[in-house]
């Protein structure tokens, strides 16, 4: 495994899975894939794990900010 250069490689999004009582912070770019994998493996493809609802609303802002940064 390569050493991860950690910390500030972008915004992280908290995800939760009420059934597994899983809480994790996932880099924004990996969230969709991680959720899909988790739900696929553990919940027969049901969308059980999801982005923390408290953050979901502000997620649009985070993404918009990212896009803004990328656009430069
Ligand atoms: Zn789960």
Topology:
Elements: E1 12-17, E2 22-27, H1 31-42, E3 50-51, H2 53-71
Antiparallel strand pairs: 1-2, 1-3
The structure holds zinc ion.
Zinc ion (ZN) binds next to helix 1.
Q: Could you explain the architecture of this structure?
A:
- The protein has a three-stranded antiparallel β-sheet.
- The mean pLDDT is 85.
- The protein is an alpha+beta fold.
- Strand 1 and strand 2 (22-27) form a beta hairpin.
- 43% of the residues lie in helices and 19% in strands.
- The chain has helices spanning 31-42, 53-71, and strands at 12-17, 22-27, 50-51.
- The longest helix is centred in the last third of the chain and has 19 residues, at 53-71.
- The chain has one domain (12-71).
- The relative contact order is 0.19.
- The protein is elongated.
- The structure holds zinc ion (ZN).
- The site of zinc ion has 9 residues, from helix 1.
Summarize the structure.
It is built from two helices and three strands. By secondary structure, the chain is α+β, with helices and mostly antiparallel strands.
The succession of helices and strands, N to C, reads: EEHEH
Order of strands in the sheet with most strands: 2-1-3
Write down the Rg: 14 Å
Integer average pLDDT: 85
- What's the number of structural domains? 1
Could you give the distance between the termini?
33 Å
Number-wise, the strands total: 3
Number of helices: 2
Helical/strand content category: alpha+beta
The portion of residues assigned to helices is: 40-55%
**Quick one: overall form?**
elongated
Q: What small ligands are held by the chains?
A: zinc ion
For the sheet with most strands, the description reads: 3 strands, antiparallel
**Approximate strand percentage:** 15-25%
Query: Can you tell me the residue ranges where pLDDT is under 50 for at least 5 consecutive residues?
Result: none
């Amino acid at each position: 495994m390569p050493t991860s250069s950690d910390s500030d490689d972008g915004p992280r999004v908290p995800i939760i899975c009420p059934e597994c009582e899983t809480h994790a912070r996932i880099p924004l770019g990996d969230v969709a894939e991680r959720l899909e994998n988790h739900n696929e493996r553990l919940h027969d493809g049901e969308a059980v794990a999801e982005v923390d609802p408290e953050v979901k609303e502000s997620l649009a802002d985070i993404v918009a900010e990212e896009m803004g940064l990328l656009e430069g």
